[in-house]
Specification:
Blueprint: E1 7-10, H1 16-27, H2 35-40, E2 51-54, E3 60-64, E4 66-71, E5 76-81, E6 85-86, H3 95-109, E7 114-118, H4 121-124, E8 130-131, E9 137-138, E10 148-152, E11 163-166, H5 168-178
Parallel strand pairs: 5-7, 9-11
Antiparallel strand pairs: 1-2, 2-3, 3-6, 4-5, 4-11, 7-10, 8-10
Length: about 190
Amino acid sequence: MNALSFAVTTARAADSAEIEALLDACFGLARRTKTTYRLREGERPVAALCHVAREPSGRLIGANSFWDLKIGEADAPALLLGPLAVAPDLQGQGVGRALMRHGIAMARNLGHKLVVLVGDEPYYARVGFRQVPQGQLLLPGPVDPARLLYLELVPGALGAARGLVLGPRRFNGLRDTRWRPAARAGAQG
């Protein structure tokens, strides 16, 4: 059996239709109902951390992206990994791991400290992900706690991350309205 040949490159806007088709092939249309999609809704991925894998023929065989997150009242920054997709006929041949390793290395070089995702621990443990301690992070929808995973790019980064996980746009809106101290009765100004 020959080794699969492919190149990992930064995704371009022109790749978006192919990426969406790959995501549909891998996860179906119901993918848009998942909690991780709530985190990404209205947000833009980190462009420098969006990658595709292509065969020498030019066929897109994999895609991965990372998204900014904010966690809890401490405003702890993190990245959300995903969606990660590999062409169904090529799964299990290292494309997904190559995309993750590439993206994680770049995220570390850019100064990011923490990555979270929702996925199968046996698969993601291959690149260092572990289960988040139960109750430490709260996502805006149902998630099996055994599938909520993290990878520290800087040792101790998970310690500062406690509470509700949101995309920056929603986080800032919530912080501006809900996390402000209530005005005291009779206070002026």
